[in-house]
Amino acid sequence: MRPQLLSILAAASVLLPPSLQAQGTGLFESDKPLPLRVSMDQKALMGERDSSKLKPQPATITYAGPDGQTVAIETQLSLRGHWRRQKANCEFAPIKVEFPKGKKDGTIFEDQGDLKLVTHCRNKDKDFEQYVLREYLVYKVYNILTPVSLRARLARVTYLDTGPKGDSLTKWGFFIENEKKIASRLKTKELELMGATWADVDPEQGALLSAFAYMIGGTDWALSALHNVLLYQDTTTGVVRPMLYDFDWTGLVNTKYSFPDYRLSIKTVRERIYRGICRRPEEWAPVIAQYQEKKAAIYGVYESLPDVDPKYVKDTRQYLDEFYALLGNPRRFKAEMIDTCKPA
User: Fold this and answer.
1) How far apart are CA 230 and CA 222, in angstroms?
2) Residues with Cβ within 8 Å of residue 180, at least 6 apart in sequence
3) What local confidence, expressed as pLDDT, does residue 55 receive?
4) Which of 12, 61, 46, 51 shows the shortest CA–CA distance to 165?
5) Where are the domains of the chain?
6) How far is CA 126 from CA 12, 161, 313, in A?
7) Mean of the per-residue pLDDT values for the chain?
8) If you placed Cys at 128, which of 122, 170, 196, 321 could pair as Cys (CB 3.0 to 4.6 Å)?
9) pLDDT in tens, 303-318
10) Using one digit for the tens of pLDDT, what is the confidence trace for 290-301?
11) Where does residue 47 fall: left (phi above 0), alpha (psi -120 to 50 degrees), or beta otherwise?
């Protein structure tokens, strides 16, 4: 790395105010945005778009520890994703962060495996940075409802180009918990069960997931194909619990590039359509009660980040109001989430 870049990294990290320095000893133990510096050859990394030939690129991640001192970690970065990895869609694609053995010891990343870093996609379109914040907040809402959900940590990332241009770029991003680490946290094992049906999973967790998908306007998922769905089996009881992830194509995030599958009877992702588990009204009662109990906390998530567009926050509250009005109306709930159910 060039000396001037090392100087920039060190100075920027040490001078961060205490309120913005890493809190706690683990990556997901704080909700405070984590300031990071990532130095890499941006052209080399973003040029690797073919998933069959991805070549990890060396990089250094730098942040300020609890004492304000600089912590630097050598990593390997590669691109990931499907839609967002395509160059026509994202000039700055999502990133997979790999930590070589021993390089993360004693750091905020110590207990983590490889990590997904959700990035801003397009450098000059401010909407895309807002999408990062919106999707991050969906993960936080899911965490409120159930521990069977991936944790996320927001980061304010400065990307320092070690290539010939030597440019820098500061954008919002967030890390997503490693899928194997959540299995350990929940004392479960990840289960690859293609062709799974609702009969294969815990019905209470299945109902919570189904209601969550409906609440956020999520249709880009499928249990049987394990599309944006993970399964975790309790190592003691054998119970299988499903979990959703990847929310940028939901109505709650409401990106301008998202659209529903042509086979569905909706025209935009903001329209809700129920695609979940089949249950009787009395079986839904405890799940509805859980959502009602968590309502204030869920709404509070959208007051937690001042950088989120206030108009979006207002629109989101109205979108959630529609869902909660449904929960409070047994006749509508039956018509929209029970009578429309298709057994699987």
Assistant:
1) 10
2) 113, 190
3) 84
4) 46
5) 3-180, 187-338
6) 24, 21, 16
7) 91
8) 122
9) 999 999 999 999 999 9
10) 999 999 999 999
11) alpha
